[in-house]
Amino acid sequence: MSGTVSRTVSNTVLPTGPVVRTPRVSLRVHTRTVTGVVVLLVVAVVLAAMALTLGDYRLSLGQVVGALTGSGSRAQQYVVVGLRLPRVAVALVVGAALGVAGAVFQSLARNNLASPDLLGFTTGAATGALVSIVLVGGGPTGTTIGAIVGTLVTALAVQALLGGAVGGYRLVLVGIGVNAVLAALNNFLILRTDLSTAVAAQSWLVGTLNGRSWPEVLAVAVALVLLVPIAVAGSRRLDLLGMGDDVARGLGVTVERTRVVTLLVGVALVGVATAAVGPIAFVALAAPQLARRVTGTTGPGMVAAGLMGAVLLLAGDVLGQRLAAPTQFPAGTMTAAIGGLYLVWLLAREWRAGR
Amino acid sequence: MSAGDVPGDGARLRAEGVTLAYEQRTVIRDLDVAVPDGSFTVVVGPNACGKSTLLRGLARMIKPAAGRVLLDDRVISSYGPKEVARRLALLPQSPTAPDGITVLDLVARGRYPHQSLLRQWSVTDEEAVRDAMAATGVTELAERDVGQLSGGQRQRVWIAMVLAQQTPLLLLDEPTTFLDIAFQLDVLDLCADLHAGGERTLVAVLHDLNQACRYATHLIAMREGRIVAQGPPGEIVDADLVRAVFGITCAVVPDPQTGTPMIVPAGREIRRQRREAARAEDPVGSGALGDA
Lengths: 355, 292
Known about the structure:
The structure holds 2 protein chains of 2 kinds.
Chain A: H1 3-7, E1 19-21, E2 26-28, H2 31-53, H3 61-69, H4 74-109, H5 121-136, H6 140-162, H7 168-192, H8 195-205, H9 214-241, H10 245-250, H11 255-277, H12 283-295, H13 302-322, H14 331-352
Antiparallel strand pairs in A: 1-2
Helix pairs in contact in A: 2-4, 2-13, 3-4, 4-9, 4-11, 4-12, 4-13, 5-6, 5-7, 5-11, 6-7, 6-11, 9-11, 12-13, 13-14
Chain B: E1 13-22, E2 25-35, E3 40-44, H1 51-58, E4 66-71, E5 74-75, H2 81-87, E6 88-91, H3 103-108, H4 123-135, H5 151-164, E7 169-173, H6 181-196, E8 201-205, H7 209-215, E9 218-223, E10 226-231, H8 233-236, H9 239-246, E11 250-254, E12 261-265, H10 268-281
Parallel strand pairs in B: 3-8, 3-9, 6-7, 7-8
Antiparallel strand pairs in B: 1-2, 1-4, 4-5, 9-10, 11-12
Helix pairs in contact in B: 4-5, 5-6
């Protein structure tokens, strides 16, 4: 089918970049993506090492390594392995979950502002978790299931309100409305409960990594292991969906199935992450876009978005702990403050682009 | 050839008694149509007559409410989605190019139905993309941002993407709309080139009847969801057909350049008189003479 035209120019070299070909595998290697992912990995490791040394009890890098390998003093081991490591791990896995979820939603909605926090999904997750805390008494499993259900219901409601892919402002306005309603509902739920539950719920609602430990890490890590491969496998199809339903279907993409599967993946990631540490703002919004800037790709880039999310949340937590020490800001407050500025900048840019 | 006549019953792409509807609105009811193999078929008709709906139905974008679409003698829905995409490509009316995508990356996406998770850029893929870009003359633009191209160049790039699918059937929904006349001719010449090899069947929805007559080997004229006439333009296009399809009075003369039928609408006064006469004859306006 190549036709006659082709033969005359068939020796043109396409600027494809490096290509890997074995008998069974053939891939185009996007050099900048690979570099970007490696850089993000290095940044994550450096940040994690920093986070392990910082704190009221200052440690050198050597002491941290010593504690990790079991040669340090008991106090050092307790601080590093018992206190700081789980906190760092929570930040990394929750940030990664939010980054991937953000990439999924933004590419599903074909809109950079369609992140779970702006659209109210995160608040919805909190509502679900609170309902489970107030009505059933909570417990990690109940909170997680509640958060996932809350996210799903919110996602479906928002989708019904929006009716398909839409421009930035309408999306933000719907998000503001949904967020307001759900925030009011959350307050109502807290007021209805006894004092101790209310205090616990309120501190969770701020979005903090304080006091989080291995059970939370494990829950989110399991979700990542199960869901990220699905997101990665679906990302090419999501890429194609970005060209319109008819184009995607014409290329053989199962449009509806791709939408449902990736939506569920995103919902589950947000639900699990929120159940673990409470609502964290703006990581899901900013991570995919910043990742795309680093890798120079047009598509969702799940892996890069996840790494960027992990870096952002860990950085937010380190800043929150050390910026005004001994006063500690919750990670959620930090990401909201930084993310807020990012959002203002983003909106100004979208506005200038006339969207 | 009259409306009931279906040429080429063994055609690779055909529809039997299809009813195509969006939600509650039925656009096409119980329609039979076959796309002659190896033809450059052009679908024409007034706005909202169902041209695009027919094309979308043939390309399995809409599931028929009744009847069936057959691709290579099998109901189209019985194929896997990628399998259809290896036999039939569709360029819809307004595709969206992702922000910042390069021409090469966009064209390469046309290879999706031939690829798998591990096989994403085989030698065949590369050759198909190279051929498609050469055939549409966009090779030099390979590294350019699609968003920065002119309308005509962009349409060439999109055609290159569906070409890279390497399908024997190629469906184009209004490929010339929103382009100025030079780019319209450019795209139509490209279509004629793509058709010239004889291995490819092209179906396009067009607005301009004169262009349709120049380029089509097979014309399908539609009105209100029905096929009014189909066949080679030279055999079916006359003043009566144009009036029946578009409701305008005109003369049909041979195109001074190509000899194909050329529609010259009657002057304003004559058309007004005809309209009034028609209204007097048929006050409810139920006939095919509604005003255009």
